TrEMBL record:
SUPFAM superfamilies: lambda repressor-like DNA-binding domains. PANTHER family: BLL4672 PROTEIN, BLL4672 PROTEIN-RELATED. It holds the Pfam family HTH_31. Residues 13-84 form the HTH cro/C1-type domain. InterPro entries: Cro/C1-type_HTH, Lambda_DNA-bd_dom_sf, MLTR_LBD. It comes from the Bacteria. This is Helix-turn-helix transcriptional regulator.
């Protein structure tokens, strides 16, 4: 099976969002006898100011769209800001990774991660693989090195790691996991031929088959700030606030930082980090 090109990914993305709309959503009279759900191609084309033939070719990945036309299509399809950015990236309208030749920054950033002794922090590469983390991350969320390298990925941890799912409060797990996946989807759209992405989807399908509807979804989003509750082993619940940062030297990477929401939460993290013979996460199952 060949890897889809960015233009094919864009076409699939537009088709998926076209299927979510009804005629009345875009000011058209409702009609019956539609063989498939959603707007027809000719309706999107007419509202976007392009020909039906050209729009068909766009969904088939056979033509390139200007930014202006793609923004017009995005308005018709009711794409939000994150979704429109994703569509524009798939069409090639994003800032190039000019700093990619500087090499990985994990070694340089390890001291930065370690400077947050009571805030779990990790560095992710553009595929969301964990390449560095601090002691607070290991103590609160589990030791990443206890998991085989091919699974050491934030997507896999959220979907298939029994330890992390046990630490997270039930009400927080699904919204956070879905947000991680939507952000990954937007990121992966810029690297459609990356073999690691295909490997991750294959691994997720094998290790978390009950979530297969997530892997086939075309929704995208941003990993925004939020407060979640975690309950590590032998600890009271801890409230931590998620932030995400991008290193200037490697903007494709991402730093995840979980800051204690209160001084008491910080004291609980500190107690976990400093307890003797810390073994949090070392007995976790790999899938």
């Amino acid at each position: 099976m060949s890897t889809p090109t960015a233009s094919q990914e864009l076409g699939a993305f537009l088709r998926a969002h076209r299927a979510l709309l009804k005629p009345e959503d875009v000011g058209l009279p409702p009609t019956s006898r539609r063989r498939t759900p959603g707007l027809r191609r000719e309706e999107v084309a007419s509202l976007s100011g392009v020909s039906i033939a050209w729009y068909t070719w766009l969904e088939q990945g056979r033509v390139a769209a200007s930014r202006q036309v793609l923004e017009s299509v995005g308005r018709v399809l009711r794409l939000d800001d994150a979704e429109l950015r994703h569509a524009l990236r798939l069409a090639g309208y994003y800032e190039p990774e000019a700093n990619a030749t500087r090499g990985p920054v994990n070694g340089a950033l390890q001291p930065v991660l370690d400077s947050w002794p009571t805030s779990p922090a990790a560095l992710l590469d553009h595929n969301f693989d964990l390449v560095a983390w601090n002691a607070a991350w290991s103590a609160v969320l589990g030791e990443p090195s206890a998991v085989p390298a091919d699974r050491r990925n934030l997507m896999w941890f959220m979907a298939a790691d029994n330890h992390l799912r046990g630490v997270l409060r039930d009400a927080d797990w699904e919204p956070l996991a879905m947000s991680v996946f939507q952000h990954f989807r937007a990121q992966a759209g810029m690297h459609p031929s990356d073999e690691r992405i295909a490997e991750l989807y294959s691994r997720l399908a094998a290790d978390a088959p009950e979530l297969s509807h997530w892997w086939n979804c075309y929704s995208v989003g941003e990993l925004t700030t939020r407060v979640i509750t975690v309950t590590p082993v032998d600890s009271e619940p801890i409230r931590i606030s998620l932030s995400s940062l991008r290193p200037v030297d490697d903007p494709a990477s991402l730093i995840l930082l979980f800051t204690p929401a209160s001084p008491d939460d910080g004291m609980r993290v500190s107690a976990l980090v400093n307890r003797p013979l810390r073994s949090v996460g070392l007995a976790r199952k790999a899938g």
